[in-house]
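FORM 7B: Structural annotation worksheet

SECTION A. Query
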Amino acid sequence: MDKIKMATPLVEMDGDEMTRVIWQMIKDELICPYVELNTEYYDLSVTSRDDSDDKVTVDASYAIKKYHVGVKCATITANPQRQEEYKLKQLLPSPNGTIRGILDGTIFRAPIVVDKIRPVMKNWCRPITVARHSYADIFNGTEYHVDGRATAELVVKNEAGEEVFHKTVCEYDGSGVLQSIYNKDKSISAFARTCFQYALDTKQDLWFSTKDTICKIYDGTFRAVFQRIYEEEFREKFEKAGITYFYTLIDDAVARTVRSDGGYIWALKNYDGDVMSDMVSSGFGSLAMMTSVLVTPDGNYEYEAAHGTVPRHYYRYLKGEETSTNPVATIFAWSGALRKRGELDGSQTLQDFADCLEKACTSTIEEGIVTKDLIPMLEGVQGRAVNTTGFFKEIRSRLDKLMQNKCNC
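SECTION B. Predicted structure
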């Protein structure tokens, strides 16, 4: 069988620890035997970012702007403990925060729903997609540790240098901490439009929630922008499509989500979306069963898994011990990126391969062959736990059959 060719490269961003090991296995076992893989490679490991003073992360971000599709491995955002462990010269910001700050856009995270996986939240029978604003807020915030008595002030000057706002934030009578965050109307507007359009494309209701009763200006602006854009640009389209837009406070939305049966998009600010996407993925079964794609208003797509680098398994791997690490979300990051590359380049064969790759994963699980994390969640099938390598072999055997059948997926 001739390998599938890629006319345009996608941006490949390698990462850290166990997910880096899995990253290479995905390419070696599940992609390169079938696809003439064409990528522009960037090493976003914590040591590579440290060595380049984070230039490699910035370069990767602009490469996505050039080629429009990227796929990213999970990466370490170092804390003091990690700095000592990896002998880093500095504590750099989150690479995801840097990439998202350059690209802007909305992160859509949805569970990978498999028939034989029983959700922890038993009433959740339809996917819940978390739409997370990817720009600014605490991920691009400014922090400071105040050492002793001091005064913190918030000052805003216009472009002429004239002071237009000045307020004392805190009179410190001793040491403490300080943080400032920000956002921009144009990014909030892009977030709203992307969410509304995604809801129309997928025929799902859209929820949006903030805490505008407390953050009356900050969160209130988000709410007002969403409502204005809905009324001016999307209300008629939503009514014609038979879907709804719904706003409520985030605490009420959390309670409603727990009681719901799913089947909607939940739009959230950056930090809120980060937290709630983990809650939703855990509720559906596993953090390793959650897709994540950043969609920008100007047509760029960055795919990744929604979980971390799995350090506990990595330390065992380094000792030569067996692991049973779930690679499904990372595989789906690759399949999503390959499918989008195929769509943009007009390559149906590449899109078909992505479908086959995903079907090979889900059919393996549906037959009860899973990594250890999924054993307690199986229902209606006898489960058999396999190690990481064994799971890849099972997926590969099913992928071979699908590809031999001309990707009848």
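SECTION C. Observations
The chain has a mean pLDDT of 95. DSSP finds 13 helices and 18 strands in the chain.

SECTION D. Sign-off
Analyst initials: ____
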